[in-house]
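Exercise (ungraded).
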Amino acid sequence: MTDTTPTEAGSTSLHTNDAAKARLKARYAAERRFKWMGAGAVALSGLFLVILLSTIVTQALPAFRMNYVTLPLDLSAEQVDMENLSATNFSGIVNDAIMGQFPSVEGRQEQRALRGLVSTGAPTLLRKALESGEVEAGDTRQVALPLDDFSDLYLKGLVAKDGGREALAAAPQIVATDGAAEITFSDRSVVELAREAGAIEEDGVLRLTSGASSLLLQADGRIVKLLEVQAADGGATATGNVLLSDAPQVSDEAAIRIVETPESQRKFTDREIVWVDSLTAQGLTESRWNEIFLFSGASREPEMAGIWGAVVGSALTMLVTLALAFPIGVAAAIYLEEFAPKNRLTAIIEVNINNLAAVPSIVFGLLGLAVFINWFSFPRSAPLAGGFVLALMTLPTIIIASRAALRAVPPSIREAALGIGASKVQTVFHHVLPLAMPGILTGTIIGMAQALGETAPLLMIGMVAFIVDVPGGFTSPATVLPVQIFMWADFPEPAFQQKTSAAILILLGFLVLMNAIAVVLRKRFERRW
Amino acid sequence: MQKFILMTSAAAVAVAMSAGTAAARDQIRIVGSSTVFPFTTAVAERLGQSGQFQTPVVESTGTGGGMKLFCGGVGESHPDFTNASRPIKDGELEECKANGVTPIEIKVGFDGIVLSNSKGGEQVDLTKEQIFAALAKNVVVDGEVVANPHTNWSDIDEGLPNTKIEVLGPPPTSGTRDAFVELVMEEACPEAIEEADGCTEIREDGAFVEAGENDNLIVQKLEANADAYGIFGFSFLDQNADKLQGASIGGVEPTFDNIASGDYGVSRSLFIYAKKEHVGAIPGMEEFIKEYTSEAAWGPEGYLADKGLIPLPEADRTSQRDNAVALKGMGS
């Protein structure tokens, strides 16, 4: 190697021998690798974030809409006494209305199932609607009532997989006695359908057992669930159960509706499917924006459960936390940073504050239980107690961040203020603190966001409770968003899974809103200086 | 800036002052078992819907924690009811008495504990002995007590599926775990093991997985793994009938009717306890008891049955209701 090549324009390389060049190359390679790994890590975490959010959003979306059924309700004077609403049998009115849609349904079990299509919360909603004047009493009124959770899930397509509808070339003949039906088909297409549905074949008879999809024949104003199908001369015969014999909206054209999910694998029977389909065919069901979820308190019935109680609870708790932690935290930071003598005592305090910031939150819950509930006898489950506990938890974060922000203000500001004759207090409050405020607010946001998502300490002070009424003040029982999510995640009803995801979205929204407000505040303070 | 600080400190002072003025309570407070929680909340909601009373606040503290709060004393800072997934213990009753509390015991129904797997897996019929052999820490092989050697179900019985034993269940702190141990493990326990280390030890070599208290999580894990089994209350099997199937125990399937009739061997009683001293002082307590013990609630067709509570036999319902409505306290 005799010639040296410049590695960069205008400079001669110092790396003149091969070993040095190789080392340089290796260094550059390492740098590139590091850069790629860093980018990869960011991309990977971004990917996970996208997966997490998209799962939550897709899970949550169905919960923001809800299906209603419009029923003619008898609200005549005999039924409803506007003077004395509590004496009115609203359940009776709702039950009569839904039963009136299917007069042929008999038998206790069946009638009970039919009544179950409408939410158990419907009578209460009806009473409230009458009280508020939204619905007027008198004669028969068409009122939209929420459907039960499983009916709602079915209409959203989350209970049974729809296998479509096969039209039949010619209408079959149906002979029905006592709910059982003998059907004669003029062609054999039904045999093929039964095979596809997973019927078990024995001696030429296709049995649609519990593992097979449901075949629901609609013809002649009836809906029949097929049980056995057999090929016969030039056509086919079948037996089945009549699920509905006075279906008003069954089209004249005969068809077989296929429900792919077998009846044994869903908690929504063929009969219920037929009822809901019939209501839908009559245009009585309707999907609406789910106001109940957004604007009502908790409930044990998934379709009636709302987030509003928890939102208000969270807001009240956060208010208490902010009102306590912010002034105390900032005052403590100012004193420690600007006024306190630097001695062993302040050093100990400083170490302890730093340690407290790392203490698990449940410990603050235990402290709150012992001090606030047992000693000061604050009410259990109240935002007041919750706010105090969370304030304790947030204080160290705020103090540490505030001190850092104060320390970051250049000494020249202080010196200039003192130089023109300001007192120490004037220096701090007129000059240093406003400059440090953006940093302090950032620390406060971090602390508050942490507090907003906290569940563990609230467990100890009774905020993990079933509370239906929306809290009216700092001392009334309340729960908060993360706790509501925690409780919904534990309920067995499948409809609560969507509610859980939807509540998570609301919590995230709450968090974004809080941050936005804080950012705006921070920006305003920044502009003043 | 100063205004801001002034305002926030004023707010802090106002908040601190309001702490002292907790109003007299006109709302029922209930604590206790997480197993009974879903049922009691449903009743509480109905009471609230009637419009005469505020909806009671129901807190899930676990049976033991609930008893401690409940027996803590009389007065509005103490709860009015507690849920329990087992009868009150003698020690707890003594503590209650010492604090002037007379509990009214109401047995509200049964809860079946089921061993279930995904519909994609094989439905099995197990005996309590087989479950013990699968899950106990020590078992008897050839007359000797040894650490559980079974890895596959077929190691226990040729007729069982040749899959790895993997059971997801509740942690030791759970009432469901206590009941499972008492009703299955202790009953099927051979004498040799009873002498050696008692019958409550569950193996810790990975065949039994403590899946936490969240039963929905277990349901999801079972869906993902067809060979795994889960232990939880009947209501989760009932609500997830589309995904799960229950294993028969001793030839009896865990169905609503079988648990109600007592044929299914793994079920326990659920209770609520009312504080006699609070009746009359806290509005709505009698109405709450009446609502809970009404046929519309706890009967075979009642709304609690829809939530997964297995009703008591009719004679028991009548006697429990009579005692409850008459406010017959324990030991009085």
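Further reading is listed at the end of the chapter. For now, observe: The longest strand of chain B covers residues 103-118. The mean pLDDT of chain B is 85.
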